[in-house]
Design a protein that fits this description.
mainly beta; five-stranded antiparallel beta sheet; 5% helix; globular
């Protein structure tokens, strides 16, 4: 969430922020969301960042996040009467795109044209207008809305003969959720544009440069990947990967994994079918083939499915083997012992092996907030953590050539063997997932990580882990004590057996109070009651450096009026309306969460 300068100033150019460093760390930290104001909530809010590295030109990075920069400054009517700053039935996009051409030291957030709520009077409810935007282009023109959950990848461009080669250039893929454009309802049903309530779309841009990314026409129109789903499907938690090792027999293929929440994502007592889907493209993202990897048998009943799968990750090795990981949730809890499950494809995603359990994990879900109904770790009205223990995977596939591949697989996640004893776990495999190392703690003492992610150098020489963490014990119904929070980036060389030899802190963001982040200063835009920093973090690596992105609250201010509202709501068991109006009752930078990066480049 974020604060002030006017939209006219923001749209004037693609801003680049001066980097800041921490004296004791090796990495440089920079603001990724450079088009975001520091105030005018919820325009100042971003969460759930993703980042990808161009293997052929490793200095080039692309990132995405859920970005509310194009929304209206918090409307008084919504805030006071509904406890929200966001009217989601406006057709305004949420998928921010950002580029770095110096290994993550500086970032640019382009301005395009599209559908926006910026400039509307917060005393009224705005339904949007054409104007400058800082999110993905060509959605409004195609009667679509970019709906967030960003996933980014970079691969080779296909030639006129259909063959992929790095010599043809590099293609950026940006996958995200998509809905039909509407200014009357949040989700159109039946959908007049494509099958499904919420689908997955992919935008593409070739040969990114500082000039080309500023040009709307560099982007191809979005392609609906999930066009053959049922009309009640709600796709969610998608991830994307481009096979970027030239040694692979499926070099250039693009893969997307996602969960298909059917029956309009009803989740009725956990009994809605939610199969794991994989979509693959062999022509650079123009057309896609669908494969259902897990059964659609009703979750919560099937022993094989447990409570269901979510939190998927998809990657390839130097031979083109596709690896799909997801968390299979236990039917017990909270807390519960869920499982990381691995599926493999040896034919470019057409057929998949049965799932193999690679780790048993403990979800950080000792408490479910009674109002928002989500797992929380810092205290009631807290930041949700229901996907904290999901797998996040990287493979040393030797990209761009594949020649130096070790094909080591690394996995990191946030684990909770005990309340107030949460930590980031790291695990690796040197034999295609047939066996795995014992998971080891890699987070700092005192940190309680909400979300974690790894990256491994393509030549297998070094591993990196990014995580974001609470640093206070569980606060329960205490709404006045600080809930300090920060991001940490760590690395370790890997020996010839793939084992990390010395974890070093590359960047350690201050946490708490006036010197660092406080989770109480956050919220998701659509609900003033709950805190929010999103559902994941992300990392990427070349042979020479690593980069991580997280949601930073270092420049967000706690609002006493909001904390009183949260306390009153918790005590009442429901939203205790009327709620405060942040534009008058809070500091200007309440909710100002930013996407931040740390790079060793």
């Amino acid at each position: 969430m974020r604060k002030k300068p006017t939209f006219v100033l923001l749209a004037a150019a693609t801003a680049v922020l001066i980097s800041t460093t921490v004296a004791s760390a090796q990495a440089t930290s920079s603001l990724v969301t450079t088009g975001s104001p520091a105030g005018n909530t919820p325009q100042n809010h971003q969460n759930e960042p993703a980042v990808a590295l161009d293997a052929a030109s490793p200095n080039i990075l692309v990132a995405g996040s859920n970005d509310f920069v194009d929304q209206e400054a918090c409307p008084q009517q919504l805030a006071v009467n509904s406890g929200t700053c966001l009217d989601r039935a406006t057709g305004v996009g949420l998928s921010g795109d950002y580029f770095s051409f110096d290994s993550g030291h500086t970032w640019t957030q382009p301005a395009y044209t599209g559908w926006t709520n910026v400039g509307c009077d917060p005393m009224t409810l705005c339904k949007g207008h054409a104007g400058p935007i800082h999110t993905l282009p060509w959605y409004f023109e195609n009667q679509l809305v970019s709906f967030g959950d960003p996933a980014v990848a970079v691969g080779p461009v296909p030639g006129s003969n259909g063959k992929f080669s790095w010599g043809n250039g590099q293609r950026v893929y940006y996958g995200n959720l998509a809905t039909a454009f509407s200014t009357t309802v949040e989700f159109s049903f039946p959908n007049p544009v494509f099958h499904g309530v919420v689908g997955v779309a992919v935008s593409r841009l070739d040969n990114p440069s500082l000039t080309s990314v500023a040009d709307k026409n560099s982007w191809k129109p979005p392609v609906i990947v999930s066009s053959t789903t049922g009309e009640t499907s709600f796709l969610d938690k998608e991830q994307i990967w481009a096979d970027n090792a030239a040694s692979s027999g499926f070099f250039g293929n693009v893969y997307i994994c996602a969960n298909d929440f059917r029956s309009n994502a009803a989740h009725q007592k956990g009994n809605a079918p939610v199969p794991m889907m994989v979509y693959s493209s062999t022509d650079g993202g123009t057309t896609w083939t669908k494969r259902q990897v897990t059964s659609a048998v009703t979750n919560g009943i099937s022993p094989q499915n447990g409570f269901g799968y979510s939190g998927c990750t998809i990657r390839t090795d130097s031979h083109g083997v596709v690896y799909l990981f997801a968390e299979r949730f236990s039917r017990s809890g909270p807390p519960n012992n869920s499982a990381h499950v691995m599926f493999k494809s040896f034919d470019g995603g057409m057929h998949w092996t049965a799932g193999t359990v690679t780790a048993v994990v403990s979800d950080p879900c000792y408490f479910v907030d009674p109002i928002e109904g989500r797992c929380v770790m810092d205290g009631y009205a807290g930041a949700r953590t229901d996907l904290a223990a999901s797998p996040s995977v990287s493979i040393a596939n030797g990209a761009p050539t594949g020649a130096k591949a070790t094909n080591e697989i690394v996995n990191a996640w946030s684990d909770a063997p005990a309340l107030n004893g949460e930590f980031t776990k790291f695990q690796y495999s040197m034999n295609g997932g047939s066996s795995w190392s014992d998971p080891k703690q890699v987070s700092l003492a005192g940190d309680r990580p909400l979300y974690s992610a790894p990256a491994i150098a393509p030549d297998g020489s070094k591993a990196y882990v990014i995580y974001e963490a609470d640093t206070a014990v569980w606060r329960g119904s205490d709404f006045t004590s600080p809930r300090p929070y920060h991001g940490v980036f760590r690395s370790s060389p890997l020996d010839s057996t793939g084992m990390p030899t010395n974890w070093t802190t590359e960047f350690n963001e201050p946490a708490g109070g006036t010197t660092g982040g406080d989770l109480r200063a956050t919220y998701p835009g659509h609900d003033l009651y709950q805190e929010r920093v999103g559902d994941y973090v992300y990392a990427a690596a070349s042979d020479t450096y690593g980069v991580g992105v997280w949601t930073s609250a270092a420049n967000a201010a706690v609002c006493d009026a909001i904390q009183t509202y949260r306390a009153n709501s918790f005590a009442a068991g429901h939203h205790a309306l009327p709620a405060p109006w942040p534009l008058t009752d809070c500091p200007p930078n309440f909710g100002n969460t930013d996407t931040q990066s740390a790079t060793t480049g």
